[in-house]
Amino acid sequence: MGMLCRKYKIEFSYNYSLKGVIANEEEVTDWLIKGLPNEQVCVDNMIIVSECKETHYPVLIDPQGQALKFLQQFSQTGEPVVQMKITQANATYLL
C-alpha cells in the first residue's frame, strides 16, 4: 500500500484513525464516560454514527451487541435503534 501511495505521491499514514482526524476529544470522552467501550472500533463506529445521523442511517456490524446496547442507552432523540440480523427473511429489503 505504501509503495503505491509513494509512487503516485499520495499522502498516507500507517497510524491513521478517525479519532485523530475528525473526532472531538470532548465528545469522545463523554461517550466513554457514558459507557462506550474504549476500543478503537467502538469509538470509530460512534464517530460514524454521530457524523451521519442527520442525513443517513449507518449500518454497523455489531456481533457482540455492544453498539446496540450503547446506542439504545445514548439515544437522546428518542429515535429507535433498529437491530437487524442478516438471517432475517427481509434483511435485504431493510438494507
Tell me the fraction of residues in β-strands, as a range: under 5%
> Number of domains in the coordinates?
1
Spatial extent as radius of gyration: 16 Å
Helix coverage percent of residues?
40-55%
Order of helices and strands: HHHHHH
Reported for the largest beta sheet, the result is: none
Q: How far is it from the N-terminal to the C-terminal residue, by CA?
A: 31 Å
Description:
This protein is mainly α and 95 residues long. The protein has one domain (17-94). 48% of the residues lie in helices and 0% in strands. It has helices spanning 2-7, 18-22, 25-33, 40-52, 66-74, 91-94. It is globular and about 45 Å long.
Concise structural overview:
This protein has 95 residues and is mainly alpha-helical. 48% of the residues lie in helices and 0% in strands.
Structural key phrases:
globular, mainly alpha, 6 helices, 95 residues
Task: Outline the secondary-structure elements.
Blueprint: H1 2-7, H2 18-22, H3 25-33, H4 40-52, H5 66-74, H6 91-94
